[in-house]
Structure formats: structure tokens, C-alpha cells
Amino acid sequence: MSLLKISDLHARIEGDGREILKGISIEINPGEVHAIMGVNGSGKSTLASILGGKGGYDVTSGSVTFDGKDLLEMDPEIRAREGLFLAFQYPVELPGVNTTYFLRTALNAVREHRGQPQISVREFATFVKEKAKLLELSDELLQRAVNEGFSGGEKKRNEVFQMAVLEPKLAILDETDSGLDIDALQTVAQGVNRMRSAERGMLVITHYQRLLNYIVPDVVHVMIDGRIVQSGGKELALELEQRGYNDFRNEVRDTVSA
Amino acid sequence: MSSEVRKLTESGAQSDWAGSAMDEARKLQGPQSNIPAKVMERVKEARSAWCKVLFPTPKLEAWKYTNTDPIARGPFVLAATCKPSKDNELEVAHLLDRALIKGFERTSQIVFVDGVFSARHSKLVSEPGVAVLRLLEGAGGSENIGNLGQHIQDAFSALATALLSDCVSISVSPGYEAQVPFQIVHITTTAAVDTVSTPRIRVDAGDNSRVTIVESHIGATGIRYLSLPIVELAAEAGACIDYYKIQLESEQAFYVAGVTAIQCRDAHIRTHLFSFGGALVRNNAQALLNGSGSQALLNGLSVLSGSQHVDNATLIHHIEPNAESREHFKGIYRDSSKGVFSGTITVEKRAQKTNAFQSNQALLLSPDASIESRPQLKIWADDVKCTHGATVGQLDADALFYLRSRGIGEQEAKAFLVHAFAVLNSVNAEPVKVRIEQLISEKLEAKS
Fold first, then answer.
1. Which region holds residue B202: left if phi is over 0, alpha if psi is between -120 and 50, else beta?
2. Which residues are B346's β-sheet partners?
3. A239 Cα to chain B: minimum distance (Å)
4. Where do the H-state alpha helices sit in B200-313?
């Protein structure tokens, strides 16, 4: 059974007639890493938001099943507890919310949902230290308020760190590479690669091929104007980089008008 | 606040419960009471001041957003003279238990029941540099009670002083750092009639001394009464007073409090006013920076629900140069509750090199909740740094989604954000911090 099955998904922004997603279909199996590539405004972040359960969108038709269940019926917290993780393009700063406390609460909510016992403060401290090391996050950052005053790179590393802590079945990385220098990009990619496993699926959303040099996908989808115009192997990313999005867009135009 | 003067002729028909209560108060204040002569003079001044001003109307700028008509209508009977003393023991025990903050290693406990000091509920830890006096007993208390002049400037201070029923004064000797914090609890119990009480605390911290005071106000659930508490804090040169007030009055209660903090040279008074209870609440809080190098911190947090109304009217008065004041008031408003913040900063001409910071932040959790925020700067000196700012907002939808996307349930996620908003980093006393967190949770979880 597939882990995530998006079937002919149509969606628009609430209160706005304009359709943003115009029939997206993607199927991710356990162990697979899929990449969605597209320019700004192609709808890829909208897709990530809808999968994560963010309000403000109307799904007009189509369906999404996650591990056999109707994903769109679930509240965002239930999606997370069921094993979906969304790494944000713009992680939110939460002044006054301690990172460690926040993460332990999140992990315990997930564990409770899975019928696992609560993790104690001490166990969690050890566990979290290990994970933080993977992402080269300092203890000091873990004692601070969530993302408050973090640099762009620290915020993105913190996203992948949270993913490592929550150990999801499916991770959606929404432009995790944006705003990262090459060193930070490598650290983040390394963190993500360590999370790859035969059970876990990933959906990597990016504008640039660069990230995919480090996180090598099994399947690449090119998204233009709310549609997947082409899907293929990792070589598709390179082809896209060489030909440019415009070339693909023209191709779509031809297909649509034909 | 002298602008609150109102001519008798405008007052119209008011119930004269205040006059009757004053007659009752005179019985307590008689020669047998041992009230120091200087304090009695101030009580008399307050009586005549009250007769001139009476209850403020919303026409007065300082009372524009807070209508005191329900208080003026009353009627209220002076609690100190109308209550039998011992048949409310269970109720007192219950309220005391709720109000006392746990987690302090030791505290000196001072309890007032219905505006009068209760020896049998109080437990004082004796310290060599600390003297505690009760007004209606023995030596009669400090001569300083009322010497900061509020009783002739502000209507409710005048009324509270005219109705003076009891006071505890705490003085700390020069150079002495009190080891044991004071926990002062004011309890209003159920009675056959609605009562008015005027509990009063005076703190004098000698040169370079230090003391921590935690004061709580609590009343039996569902009862209607008027509480007019006064606290006067005076810090001599280099002294430091940490003062916390936690207001947990009944949801039917009226509460108008006076808080005056005066700091001499290099002294530092840190005041925190927490408002959780009451139907109609007003804090008249003043910090007087009366010495070079003095520092005043005046912070507050209101967490309201239902139709509660809490008005914080503050005055930071820079009298001497080189002083610093920090003021930060926050409010969290549920249901149709209402907050008012009027923060005045006055900088006298001689108070050069003043640093004054003020901020007011409101979190509205319901479309029916509201806040009026009015900063006012009156600056006569030319070399000062004064900043103020106010923000009003709702819970941030992106922050809420972020928390939920990590598996945290909606209610818990909201609580996370509200608690995060409520944090006042200036609270030094850990047990107070913990208790405030609990009280916020209770208030948020309570059904509207």
C-alpha cells in the first residue's frame, strides 16, 4: 500500500475563485523520496500547506490518503500524530515557548496517539541531545524560545531536528534549502539523509536542483501552474536545470492548447 | 489625579452608604484605638477631602472608561464593624488555603479577615531587623501611614483612608536584608449584607535594606462586596522592595486599590500587579522616583473572562534626575471582558537624564473582548529618554498552526501561546511565577 496517495487534487484559496492546484496526482511508497520542483507561484507550497492541514484553502475535488486513511479529514495535530511531518518554508518564531518543552510536549502527544508511554524529562534530555548533534544545533539553542532570534540556517536546521525527534512516516520538506549557504545546506541534507529508511517516505519541495545533489530523489515531479507536467527519475532534475522552467512551460502550453 | 475633584452640587442623588460607613469607622478610630495622632490627622483630612469629591463620574478624564455608579449605588456596610468574628472559620480556612502561595521555604504570614488583621490566622517569623506593627493594637502602628498624600488627591484613597479600619506596618532596619518573605492575605467572607473593607499595608524599608512582599486579595465565590485596599511602599536610600499583588476577588466584587511606591536615592521598588478576579476593578498605582539613581519597575498582568472590567491607571512620576522607570502591562481578555490601561509618565523639570519605558500589550481571545490603551507623557525636562508602545492582537494563526503541525492539540497549542504571551520575565520569586502560571491555566480552562 502506498504511504501517500494524492489523486486529482483541486484546490483554491478560501474566498477566491482562482484555482491554485489543478489536478495533482502523486503516489509515494514507503522508502521513496519524491521531489517536486517548480517556480514560485506554481502551487507547490500550497500543496505542502494543504497536506499539512493549514486553514485558508478549499479543496474542491480529489482526495489524499495517508497510510490508507483520509488525510484531508484530519486536524493538523492528528496528521502529525499519524506520522506526517511538515518542515516549514518559513518556520514561525514562538517567543516565550521553550524549545525543549515544546518538543517534549509534541513527542508525547505523538507517542500517546501511538499507544506508547510518555517519555520522561530525563530520557528526553538524552534523546534530544543525540538528535541535536546530528544537526549541529547547540544546547544553548534548545534552551531558547522556539526559533526566536535564530538565523535562517538555524531555523531550517531546527525543522529537520524536529523531524528527527518526531520520527515521522512521511516528511514534507517545503523549500528547506531556501536561504541556506552551502555549508548549512550540507548539514541539513545530511540530517535528512540519515532519516531515510525503507519505511519512511519523503516529499522534497524545491525551486532549485542544487538541493537534489545532496538529497537524491527516487522520483522527480515538475510542477507548473498547479499541474504536474512531467514525472521521472532523478535525471529529470538535471534536465530541468539545463532547459529551464520556461521550456517546460511552453511544452505544457502546447499540450493544453493541442 | 486632583482633576477628579467634583462639586457636591453635581453629585445628584447618591446613596449615603459612605457617610454611614464613616460613622461606623469613627467608632473604631476613637481614642481607645491607639492610632498615632499624625495618622488620625490624615484620616480627618481624608474625611473632608471625600466630602468634596465623592464618587467620580465618567465625565472625569481619569474615569472615562470605568463607570463607578454600581459602587456609588452600593449600599455597603463597613465590614470591620458588622461581622461576627468566629462563625466563618471553615470559609476562611478554605480561602486562605487557595490564596497562600506554596513553594516558599518560609514566609511570614499576615492575614486580614474582612479588613481587619486576624492574629489567629497570622504566623509571623521573627527576624531581628524586621518590625511588624498592627494599627489597632499596642503601639498603634507606624506614624507614616498615609504620609504619601494620596488620601487628599484621589477620591477612593480618600474614602479608604476615611474608613481606615486597620493597617499592618512593616519596617525593615537600615542595612537589613529580610530573609523571610511576607505573604499577606486579605479575605472577604460571606455576610448577610454587602460589605466594604479597607485593608491597608505600610512598608518602610530603611537605607540599603531589602524585603519581599506578596499580597493576595480573595473573596468567597459569588458574593458582592467592595474592597478598597491601600498599600504604601517607601524605600529609603539604596533599599529594595519586591512587591507582588495577586488579586483573586469574587467575580461579583468591586475593587478599587491604591498602590503607592516611593523610592529615595538609589532605591529600587519592583511592583507587580496581577488581576484575575473582580467584576469591576481599578488599580490606582503610582511610582514616585524621588531620588537620584532610583529605579521603579511597575508591571502588571490581567487575565479576564466573562464581563470583567479591569482598569489599571498608573502614574510614574520622575521627580529627581538620573532615575529609571520600567512599566510593562499585559492583558489577556476572554469573552466580553474589558481592559483599560491609562499610563501617565510625568517628568519634572529637574529630573534630567530620566529613562522611562512603558509598554502595554493586549491579547484579545474573543471578538467581544476589548481594551482601551492610553499612554500619556508629560515631560518638562529636556534631556530625557522616554519610550512607550502599545500593541493589541489576537492569537497568531501561523503560530497556532505551527504548534498543531507538531502534534500538539488545538486547546493546548492555544494555551502555549497565551502562556508565552503572559510571561513577565521580571518576576524573581519562583513560587510566585509558578502560581501565576497555574492561575492563568485555571482562568483559561474555566467555562465561559
1. beta
2. B317, B378
3. 34
4. none
The closest alpha carbon to B120, from B99, B92, B148, B97, belongs to: B92
Over residues A100-152, the pLDDT tens digits come to 899 999 999 999 999 999 999 999 999 998 888 887 888 888 888 999 989 88
The minimum CA-CA distance between B221 and chain A, rounded to whole Å, is 32
The answer to whether the beta carbons of residues B344 and B314 sit under 8 Å apart is yes
Nearest to B406 among A95, A106, A113 (CB): A106
The CA distance from A89 to A163, in Å, is 14
Partner residue opposite A92 with nearest CB, options B399, B409, B410 = B399
Q: What is the DSSP letter of B177?
A: B
* CB contact (8 A) between residue A94 and residue B423: no
Identity of the residue in B397, B405, B413 whose CB atom sits nearest the CB atom of A52? B405
Nearest-10 Cα torsion for A112, A114, A119, A124: -120
Q: How confident is the model at residue A179 (pLDDT cuts 50, 70, 90)?
A: confident
Could you give the CA distance from residue B408 to residue B404 in angstroms, rounded to a whole number?
Answer: 5
> A75 and B404: CB-CB below 8 Å?
yes
Q: Is A167 on the interface with B (CB under 8 A)?
A: no
Q: Which of A140, A164, A155, A176 is nearest to A92 (CA)?
A: A155
| Of residues B264, B263, B261, the one with CA closest to residue B283 | B261
What is the ipTM for the molecules in this complex?
0.95
Name the minimum distance, in Å, from the CA of A230 to any CA of chain B.
30
Is the CB of A103 less than 8 angstroms away from the CB of B423? no
Q: Could you tell me which chain B residue has the CA closest to the CA of A103?
A: B406
Contacts of B435 (CB under 8 A, 6+ apart): B101, B102, B103, B246
Q: Do A103 and B406 touch (CB under 8 A)?
A: yes
Distance (Å, whole) CA B23 – CA B88? 25
The answer to whether the beta carbons of residues A212 and A188 sit under 8 Å apart is: no
For chain A, the first-to-last Cα distance in angstroms comes to 36
Residues of chain A contacting residue B419, judged by C-beta atoms under 8 Å apart: 96
- The tens digit of pLDDT for each residue in B46-89 reads 999 988 888 998 888 899 999 999 999 889 999 988 866 556 88
Least confident of A39-43, B138-142, B357-361, B418-422: B138-142
pLDDT above 50 for A258: no
Supply the pTM of this predicted model.
0.86
Choose the weakest-confidence range: A196-200, B122-126, B441-445: B441-445
DSSP type of residue B119: T
